[in-house]
């Protein structure tokens, strides 16, 4: 998977997968998209002092970095697990400029260099467990309060938006758990509803009209 560094409109970096023509984040702004979708319209809706987060697609590590910042600023304990089949190499993650946008005591590079398949207590508020595997192969006995569904778009990797994968996400959530994603495609929304989610369309980040916020029905 060949990837090139690009600059998005808010001044933050993203990566372009050249053989797909797909970017890891919105070209309108990587940091502002992640903040809008996964923090403001996701994590902030979990009203607990201790939160279990599962991310489908570690990618650049931006969502994890922003979540670590949120945990510290809001004095909540966050246990973060993330799945990634094709982790970045040092040359790629060292070039990303997210440390200039996020106020944390530890850098993005630190998160990337942590061992995989090992629970790491990063700060008093934030621990992380990275799984380097395909989403199809991921399994857990744990249940999560929120899932960040941040895989490549349907037009590029439709298999990751299949009923089987979306049902896996549903089964990994606690009752009333939250599923949040940047995408808002009619076919995906119908699948989510058929599986058992209560689906709500929210205003999307700059450059995108809508996003999806879904809750696991009980």
TrEMBL record:
All residue ranges annotated as the MnmC-like methyltransferase domain in the record: 135-216
Source superkingdom: Bacteria
UniProt cross-references to InterPro entries, sorted A to Z: MnmC-like_methylTransf (IPR008471), SAM-dependent_MTases_sf (IPR029063), tRNA_MNMC2 (IPR047785)
Can you tell me which residues the record assigns to a coiled coil? none
What this protein is called in its record is: tRNA (5-methylaminomethyl-2-thiouridine)(34)-methyltransferase MnmD
The species this protein was found in: Paenimyroides aestuarii
Organism lineage string? Bacteria, Pseudomonadati, Bacteroidota, Flavobacteriia, Flavobacteriales
